[in-house]
């Protein structure tokens, strides 16, 4: 299908427009390329966008990360790009459609109930018309489902369900429909090979307050699962049933109008990692640090003439040798020079570049291990980078350290932390157009809620001990270079338990060739030296003699 | 009246308890001592508290600033002190009264409508019974009302009213009752001598959407004013009338149940100072800096044997000599040694101390000038303070500079700024139990909304260019000493107008005898040296030769 077909359909049915989201029936989850309607319609390949097609035009809404990329990928004669950094989709819709009675179509399997209600409140005179009423966006490839063993999860599914049932009863419900696939996966200790980077089992689970449950999934070898079609028959059987309107598609409420909007508490439960998970996460980060450091040594000797794709493949080959490795946790971003200025750049056969000399290479990658998920960005000097690159990298490092070193009271939210991280950049009139940090799942989504560090995280979830977060400030100079320094941290209580701090998980050297020591304070230099000492002591016994010599130098005090 | 009388009354009328606020019919405003029921009942003299009296007990709720002071002032056998830092009044009430049907009495003139509604929601089974239905808490002394001239305000009352009427109409209202006395004073460009420190005219104003208005006030020489009793007769005449439930006493809604809760927009209008006000504020701060610096020189020569009260009187005598001086903006806090550890200490005949040697003197004071309000705290070394005092003062200075130097995007709220300020203290396991900053009125309340810098200011008003705020971190060591460093700042746009920063208003040296330079970064030292250079250059032409020599030394680079 292409945009012209959509426009023909709109004209025939006298519609004013149609909304396309990038998702499928698992709202906000990772999707397969063949499920990506926006990719199909516009060629935009980023991980977040909205598309609004009218009979005569099409508008693609993208955030700061994807502005440059969208410009490169879409046909600008057919699709107008709207920057979400300047106007929200809702505001845009209100500006353009609030005063005219309109008919807007949508697929009720791919829009959440809360998004639909927001749209209805926003445009009370409009009619929103569901079309395309089947969850057909799921891939039809046969999926292998497997158990995430207790030695990794630390808790059996039965115990997790018991905890969740307490919540169901407390809400006065008889049953709850979990529509968030990562939450289903956590609750049942199940995983699958459905997605290349995120090992979740894409399923819904309907739990009764006594703990019995039904799983809804398709095209998989999980035998007890029911087809999604069964929801239409089963959901109306409950009077007191809850679902989270933020993650349940609009079609769910159309099956049973009594379904009560009830936050999915699993999101909070799974964000706090238990002792077994935390031990695994530390071990996984040690192995990931070994792989990344071996790769960095290799890169220092072999970067000449290599392409971004070759770099990413080589890094994967190092990770594959490590225990419990399952897959990358997302498609590696290896961006050289101007490519790295595109925040979520991915090298493809078309744009793949040879690593540029006298520039920087931005390398954002991670692994899914059975005992933990990693996500790390290093920016690496190739040849002799300019003093501008060194200054900007040093500012990004100051920004990283400002937050990594922060102490904050219980109940601190992500917007408060964000302002701390950005101070060193703001003071030089610089900024970056993406979040400063995200939660990370356990052998699950590399981006996990509920907390995140962002200027937009006002009123968002509070940070709590046991959570994992990335810290990843950056700086991007269009058409020139890109910088980001990312580690994962766990949130820990201070001696005074009213306060929290971050403990580092990621173990890999930060490139000193890109640091101007004169721009760092004594505290910042101490942080870096302490961090490098920890990296060296942790990794040293897993390296060859040459790798060790390289690491000793890379981790020597500034 | 004393607590025993209240308890007798409660028993006779079979009540479970009575709530006393510290306020009068001008909710959250400064009050006269003779209007302070909590002072009368408990002897607690702080500026914020709640008192709950039951037939057998009395509970005084105080915040972090007043915990020590309350312990000293009240009869602990009769009154139990409850720390608001540990439990909110509402939580406490729910814990103790949620499960029993209770009757609780209150004075509907001194509790806001929103507080009453919160209480009713909190304890749905309780009956809240208004008693004492007259605004009798107003002083009966004859009040002089005067015009705040246009050369100071920059805008005539008629124009302010026209702006506000646009808001009234936009809300679909025919009239609006302003119950916030500072807002009435701003709107009408009127002031009075009713309060010793806050020159506001304590009046309500009822504005119709065409701009005509009625003023309600008592015991004053403002001839057009009506008695508050008239409200009962006049308010029911309006169908579409608004008032702000946060500042209007509960009795108002009992007069006309149709009154619609509508935020008082004057709070936002008056917070953004206009160009004439800002020019006045700068001039007032220059004169206030001259007075304070002359005093500091005098103090350096004359502290021996002086009492805290003598210090405060001497400082006032310097301010009195300055142009446009009207009064202090609050009772000066001159606290020596352990007294300064009581955050809002006031020297009285009973506790007045002689300035301690080899300690620090905390001096928090300010002036009301016709062209601006000041508020400044300096902590001054007396003799040879201990290295602990110097270390803590240096940390408080780091905290002050961290925020004074901050750059922040539009829409930043006070909790985000608060976390920046406290980082240097948190990192040493230290904290202070009061807000980091408050808005400041223009020849009006020294504490003015809507924005404030506080851990508790989540979801509070955003900072905007033209606002004035204090920055005043501190450190308090019980029974030993207290430190606070406070300047006022105006909020200004950066070159990139998406960002804001602070421009300093207060001009007085920060005591270098209490600074350990080794604990400061190069940026912090630069900030202090630049600030002192500005202080010196601004004040130098207004001082005597000896004062100038002293200031040159006090402002010399670190």
Summarize the structure.
Chain A has 558 residues and is α+β, with helices and mostly antiparallel strands. Helices cover 33% and strands 21% of the residues of chain A.
Structural description of this entry:
2 copies of one chain form a homodimer. By secondary structure, chain A is of the alpha+beta class. The first copy, chain A, has 17 helices and 27 strands. Chain A has a 6-stranded mixed beta sheet with strand order 4-3-2-1-5-6, sandwiched between helices. The first copy, chain A, has a 5-stranded mixed beta sheet with strand order 11-10-8-12-13. In chain A, strands 20-27-26-23 form a 4-stranded antiparallel beta sheet. In chain A, helix 12 (275-302) crosses helix 13 (308-320), helix 12 packs across helix 17 (545-554) and helix 14 packs antiparallel against helix 15 (414-426). The first copy, chain A, is globular. The model of chain A has no long low-confidence stretch (mean pLDDT 95). Chain A binds chain B through residues 405-409, 412-413, 415-420, 423, 426-427, 429, 455, 458-459, 494-496, 499, 521-523, and chain B through 405-409, 412-413, 415-420, 423, 426-427, 429, 455, 458-459, 494-496, 499, 521-523.
State Rg of chain A: 24 Å
Mean pLDDT reading of chain A:
95
Relative strand content of chain A: 15-25%
Largest sheet of chain A: 6 strands, mixed
Spans of at least 5 consecutive residues with low confidence of chain A:
none
Residues in helices of chain A, as a percent range? 25-40%
Oligomer: homodimer
Shape of chain A: globular
Task: Count every beta strand of chain A, where a strand is a DSSP E run of 2 or more residues.
Answer: 27
Kindly name the structural category of chain A.
Answer: alpha+beta
End-to-end span of chain A in angstroms?
Answer: 57 Å
> How many H/I helices of chain A?
17
Q: In what order do the strands lie side by side in the largest sheet of chain A?
A: 4-3-2-1-5-6
Most residues in contact: chain pair: A-B, 27 and 27 residues
